[in-house]
Amino acid sequence: MTVIQGFLDNKIFHIISDIAESKGVRAFVIGGYVRDCFLGRPGKDIDVVVEGSGIEIAEAVAEVVRSHVSVFRNFGTAMLRYRGVEVEFVGARKESYRRDSRKPIVENGSLEDDQRRRDFTINAMAFSLQKEDFGALVDPFGGIRDLDAGIIRTPLDPDTTYSDDPLRMIRAIRFATKLSSSDRPFRIVPESLESIRLNRGRLEILSRERIAEELNKMLVCDRPSIGFRLMDETGLLELILPQLCRLKGTENVEGHGHKENFSHTLEVLDNVAAAEAEAIAAGTLKDYEFEDGEEKEKIRTEPNLWLRWAALLHDIGKPATKRFDKDAGWTFHGHEVVGARMIPKIFKSLKMPLNEKMKYVEKLVLLHLRPIALVTEEVTDSAVRRLLFDAGNDIDDLMLLCNADITSKNPRKVERLRQNFELVRRKLSEVEAKDAIRNFKNPVTGEYIMEVYGIPPCRQIGELKEYIKNAILDGVIGNNFEEADRLMREKASRMGLVPLPSGQ
User: Fold this and answer.
1) What's the CA gap between 44 and 33, in Å, rounded?
2) Which domains can be identified in the chain, with CATH numbers?
3) pLDDT at 1 (0 to 100)
């Protein structure tokens, strides 16, 4: 394996080298930046370890490059930005751990001490910034060999590494997921996998936030299924997301079997990741944000983490709704409703946001069968309007998820469903262009009804607005004020409401 050319061309490395020499200390680039250089994808996050005070070197560098430096004295680290690159400095250290905590006892140390405390050999490699051997690779644990072989391995005995900091068990799986490609898979060595199984109970000392952070990073990888299969294989998944484990397995009654829902879920997750990546590359996915009270759209440039969560959890309600019917076979009626109700509890257990992000996942889980249902029957304008109304600006993500959910070992069935699905997609575009339902606003407001009939806020206002909304969605009237006002007056008259003279 050969390093990409120019990996240390950035001027910041020479500035650090000069300052370290003037201070009489040694400095090294270490960790992910080094690893990714050999993979041909240097990043914009650089970690520098100093055999001395990392904060002192950071402050001196910041003065030269005229950048603000953020100092975190409790952790002995400092960070600055230089021409779009984030550079973090830390003093070389050695660590020891107590059994009941993943917070280390830290002492000053050498580069080798610092490399020994790293999680994996591929993350323990360093480049020298000393003038006499600038750019030399310092690799005492064979990280370059493991990188070339596609191996995730700990520098020390894995039982020690994982017991000291059990988050590293999930990180091992996350790196295997992140670094794997179709032509170059990464694997965790067998003794390390076995150690994860043996030490999985140590997860109890981790905060749920840190676990969720690793899951989030795993979900936005190109093939997130790799990570969830490894978590299942090592017993971590049962401790983190037991609801997913309940999707495993099949049953057979009277010759009728059902789909293995765990494998199906991971296939859908990978399908969503691939489809979203393709759409991002084509610039066809949009996101919507409110700025200065106005909704603005922008082209999506990064994976939508919450779309990945919706894909992972879209069938989470199936175990609770599984039934066998002699005529229909296996059914999961209402699993989308049950699944949507499970989302808040799952998010709460992982200390994830309970705001609009969670509600987005709830919505997609609840609606994920609606487009599929449309492809199996005549697609009416009314059904399409209601889907657009319920999905709103999330309709494109919903359609992406539903298309990814079309899986079968029968290629003819898949092709037929996909063709029908395209009919629904075209119908959505036609109805949206004609009726503007996606961001529906009732042409008749509550304030207008109160003004016309001289009534205070009451149940009748809600009834009138709901009646008008349904009439528009069902195509009885157009989505405009004139028709809505006329219908409102007809309905209000039947309800016994009389307009004020000024409201005629």
Assistant:
1) 8
2) 1-149 (3.30.460.10), 280-435 (no CATH), 446-503 (no CATH)
3) 45
